Amino acid sequence: MFQTHSPPQMQFFELAPVPMVLLNELGEIIQSNRECQQLFHVQPDETNIDGYLTASAWNEAVRYFQVVSNSSQYEPFTKLVRLARSKDIYVLKVNLVNTVPTNTFIAALTLYQQDDELNEALQERLPMGMVRVDTEGRFISVNPAYQTLLGYNDDDLLQLTEFDLTYHSDANSEKPLRENITLGSGNQYRVDKRYIHKNGHQIWVRTFVSSIVCKYTNQQQFLIAVLDIHEEKQLQDTIATSERRFRAIAENVSSVVWISAADPLRLFYVNKCYDTIWEEKVETLYSDPHAFLARIHPAEREVAENTRFSSSTNSWNINYRLLFEDGRVKHIRDSGNCVFDGNGELIYRVGTLTDITAEIDQRDTVVVMAKKLRELVEYDSLTGIKSRHAIMTDIQEAYQEYDRISDPSVLVYIDADGFKNINDSYGHDVGDEVLKAIAGHLTSNIRDSDVAGRIGGDEFVVLLRHTAKAEIPHILERLKCDIECEGLPEGINVSISLGAIELSENVVSAEQWLSEADKTMYQHKRARKKNRLSRKH
């Protein structure tokens, strides 16, 4: 038999000497007591009331409560039935226990007897409180469970009425209900109220009050069944307090907070932040939970819809954009989770919608700043070609690649001729123009696969990658040409000296490679200078 954790007021089930069953509206058994299982030989796999009586009898009970449940006064559904597994006739008595989240019923099955003494004996044995009172509320009979609940004995109760034991404001509220039964307006009602224990503390109870007629005196009496719901009320108060706290927090956060049923189309709660972020009234979501999709960028709308309304999504964290008529764009982070009960059944979904536009803008700013910083590090600010740090990294990588696969590369070291004299004679502004002219000359005369960089001052390097020996003379010849620079004072001729070293097994490090190219350049520079001096003499 399928079992659930019993609410506190239903703990009498297992001890009750009469068959009792807790059911939902479909007739599915939530819990049955031991007496019920033993008397009717209930099998472990049986989960429906059809195992006890016909479906038509149960449907009749459900229809009855559909009619009377909106009324404040109604009596239990009572019907004589012959059970499927017994030849005897039983009294089926059904009451509506709860309506949240769905209707829950309690059904009691008692052997049909007209012997009132037997009924009194059963009441004595029940662990739930049972009392009989007259129209004035004076006690006629009280079972032990009622005395235990309130701490009074027989002698105490003889001096009191049932209303004397009821908290005064609750008694005042209940008296009109009792008077209506006395006047014949219905014969049963249910009310939650507080009793006063003999020690003075309050106890929450749920009472089912039915009008009966004494067969001996033919006078009206009231039979009252009392369930202890004190723990349930305390839990309800705790839940209500938690809900108030949750709403107080949720209404003061900067994100949209929403809760839905397991069915995402049944929204329970959305906070007012939706008005601010979506710039629409939150009430539109309760009538149409899809309404938030209209603002989402068309390219991202389908993903947002599938994520939110998919039955297979347990948790999610996606970003999308909102578009507004004035051209504004907001970036949203949509996060949420599904919440399951102890049996793994989905009970509700909860999520947040956060405006992360400032975060995205800040990220974009950081990206731009990082790019600019990288350019400052990798490129020489004056000439625009690679900086010393960047070109040295390229040289190191070329050396390591040669060490792995013997890929041929050539390093060319370059120095401007007579640069110090230009700086001293014409100033640094002219000197800077010369350096920029040299950088432009180098980049114009190398291949796309090659790279030029400034080592410092008037010293440059060119890395010729993947270069065959036959190509080297042609490239060096282009690089050695005099440099034309518009805008420089007359008499300034810009020329350069260079030295080239091809990678080989004799080169044992990138630093040695650079040093050898530097030495070669200075050898060529001295040789050219010596030749010029020889021609003058």
TrEMBL record:
SMART domains: GGDEF (SM00267), PAC (SM00086), PAS (SM00091). Its cofactor is Mg(2+). Residues 189-241 form the PAC domain. Residues 407-537 form the GGDEF domain. Residues 114-158 form the PAS domain. This is Response regulator PleD. It comes from the Bacteria. Coiled coil: none annotated. GO terms for molecular function: catalytic activity.
